[in-house]
Input
Amino acid sequence: MMLAVKLGLAVSIVSSVFHGHVQAKPVFRRAVDFFNPVDGGGSMLSNAGAGGGEPLNVIVSGLSSPEVLTDDGFLNFAKAIGFSTECLGVHLGDPQSANLGDGYGPVNQTVELRQDFGDPNLGTCLESLVVFAVFITRTVLLPTAVLYSLPFRKKRQDVQQGHTIVPDGYDIGRDELVTNAVGTTSFGGVTYSTISQTITGLLPAGSDGINHGIAIDGNVVLLTITIQ
Output
């Protein structure tokens, strides 16, 4: 999301939004931060194809301001930390899916957000010229009516190195995301205050089942985003 990841060249980041069961009426703040997808038969790993998954290692708390827990609201927050929609609306590559344990099984991502380099209109067009990292946000309304987002990011090496993910790339991406998100940010006349909390036990440490065999530390960061 939001952060510029640097790896020799500039790095851009991509974010995708997944939807489970979503209702039209506004979603109000709930009394829990999130539900573990595993408890509902889901997974804290996306399906990246080829038998590997990518860690859902950042959660946007259900106790965040209700306006943040909507498509438009989350997009505005993403822009506040340096992300926007894809260049000219063009998307390349197959979508990933995630089973968030809400009873709807694997759900494909529905939108991707890329690092905008300070220009929310055309800045994402620069991504194809430089390295990129991936940030995927899953937004899901669970049967209990708790809306939450599960994002992940991964840092990649530049195009000359075949867009391979750097060692510890998933953890590096998560940490850079959190660094950019925490504190006070603003976009479109909306100011956000974000705090973080590290959670253990949701993801196992190591490389078992992880895309590209890249080891992770198993930590998940919970972000609570409040509109001031």
Q: What stands out?
A: The longest strand covers residues 9-19. DSSP finds two helices and eleven strands in the chain. The chain has a mean pLDDT of 70. Residues 1 and 182 are 12 Å apart (CA to CA).
